[in-house]
Amino acid sequence: MRIASLALAITAAVHAQEPLSLTPTIVEAERIDDEPAAVSVISSQSLELFQANSFSDLTGIVPGFNVVSADSRGYGQVVTMRGSTNTLFFGPPALGLMIDDVPLGHAFSYPSELLELEEVRVHRGPQGPNFGRNGPAGMVEMFTSRPGEKFAGSLTTEYGSYDHVGLGLQTSGPLGGDFSHTLQLFHDQRDGYIRNSFLGDETDDREATGGLFNLFWNPSDDFELRLRYYGEFVNDGSQRLSSLSSPDPFQDSSDFLGATDLERHQFSLHSRKNLDWGKMETITSYQTWDLDPSTVDLDLTDGTTPWVVIGFPADARSSITQSQDLVSNEIRFSSLEESSLRWQAGLFQMWIDNEGTAVRTTVLPGPFPIVNDTTRFDIEQLNLASFGNVTWQINDSLALDAGLRLDYHESEIDRVKTDITTATNTVRGSQDDLFLSPVVGLTYAITPTLDGFIRSSIGNKLGGFTAYVDSANGPEFDRERNWSNEIGVQYENSDHDLRIGLRGFWDQIDDYQFNQSVPFSSDFAIVNADEVTSRGVELDLAWTPIERLSIRSSVGYVNAEFDSYTDPFTPGANFNGKEVPFVPEYTGSAGIRYDFDSGFFAQTSARVSGSTRFDAANTGTFTQDAYLVWDAEIGYTTERFTIALFGRNLLDEQYYSFINPQIAAGSPGDPQLFGLRLRTMF
């Protein structure tokens, strides 16, 4: 697949965009006969409007959702939904992710760049009874396109700032007999954004190659078999990091050229059988994710000047190799869509094995000039679950939704750490857990155009182990429990092409899983804060006031605070009333597009993010203030080609997408970018 993708690099392009005018919805709440609670539905045209090419670009488009990106292809990223987050490397995700019904594992394995997507659906609140994959705070579903009745394809070339080249190919359609296919191949590369004054070069260059292939077999209208493969090969430079004390966030003086090499493979087999009473579906997947290696200079200096974090001359480096193997199986049954009593039930199994080696090297003055801390770990997790939900259409106006999930979970750790004294610290342990996750909700059609709903649910985020802490400091963390409540209304007037959704939520989270650094060491633990409360309001709007003009907007406000949390490693450090790290105070977006009769189009969009804390103490130095990113695009489209000129971050706003308090460094967000895209269709 890599060879095929590279061969297409002359004529193809990544991130192809649909040339059609926008559909009249970007975010919609399904009507009462479809879904009892609000769901954000983002079409491919809406992804184009907001130039959403990466997973983190969904921030602001979906109220209450945010991605804290460390610019390392998802490794170390934090994905938040309504105040619930994942921890950096070992904790389970709060927000589950599925691509074409294939569940992904931990949040660090979520792909950073988006495939060509037909639709994204974001479900808010605990989703345990609705999916095989556990979604304790919500679920994101991504869908690529299915084949049509005729063969179709496209080639796209993109060139832009920092010598960015995007190349890709898409084809779909019948193959003969009862077989059809879809294919995506891509190659994407650019020069680095960060200038290294010591090495005299840009260090954070990026390069990725990959592809997606689906083979469909439809011998009859009531049966389908689907074989799917997705692969990605990443050969990146250093993680995008610079010192917080640097006057220019896009400059450093590191003496060590880091790298991020990553490879992922997904194989899955899907089947669907329509029966007289409903539908049966199965999904079996095997996935590998290999990081080999991720290396980074932690002091971000040339090694001859004092490192302010330690206070004396030092050279600190980190090297991590890590792999994740995942096997999942799901079988689910669902009723006929036209039934007044609709139901779904299923069984789910997922096994995950995380294995790796982390080496932290520090050069110090004194009798031990070179210090190596080496950690080798193997963490296995097994999740077995049964799930089901029922929606009863009581009358024309009222629907009741109820569901239940039963989980059994096992986790084991085998970890060995060797430090400067050559002493060996071994951690071995296991845990198991059995728990229920219920949900109940009501939807009422107030008028033919206005629905109201209320929902209450329990979400459970699995417990487990972290490898980066000694046995004395507690490698084990407990299950997190979220009692989530929401109420909202949805207005939909097709005569005026207008949709408005308004929701309020209140989440009470016990044993909140949270990363905490261990003082005077390079370790960090996952601890459980006793109680966190998260409250907020979400508003979204989709409007087509006149033909060819589309307006989309959304805003989400989140207030997530520690009600009860004391740092276990710092006596007397109480963080009650402090804001939860990684959760912006608010996010929002607005976009507008107009398609002219002549074929020309123009669109512009903006996304905002409120103040974000990056440590539990809410230290000002480790806080990113509110910022706004403005994008725009103009172009011309016909049935056979599209050409477009685009700009991103037109105001050249400077901000950090991630801050690491442990090394006083951050990942600056994308600078001002321009580019030209040409797409041909056949």
Strand content: over 45%
Q: What is the CATH fold-level name? A: Maltoporin, Chain A
Which class in CATH terms?
A: Mainly Beta
Q: How many runs of DSSP E, i.e. beta strands?
A: 42
Given as residue ranges, the uncertain stretches (5+ residues, pLDDT < 50) are 1-36, 307-313
Largest sheet features: 22 strands, antiparallel, barrel
Instruction: Tell me roughly what share of residues is in helical segments.
Output: under 10%
CATH homologous superfamily label: TonB-dependent receptor, beta-barrel domain
**CATH architecture label:** Beta Barrel
What is the count of helical runs? 2
User: What is the approximate shape?
Assistant: globular
The number of domains is: 1
The Rg value, from CA coordinates, equals 25 Å
SS-derived structural category: mainly beta
Folded structure, characterized:
This protein is mostly beta strands. It has one domain (2-681): Maltoporin, Chain A (Beta Barrel), CATH 2.40.170.20. The strands form 8 sheets. The protein has a 22-stranded antiparallel barrel. It is globular, with a radius of gyration of 25 Å.
Quick structural gist:
With 682 residues, this protein is mainly β. The chain contains two helices and 42 strands.
List keywords for this structure.
2% helix, 682 residues, globular, Maltoporin, Chain A, mainly beta, 5-stranded mixed β-sheet, 42 strands, disordered N terminus, single chain
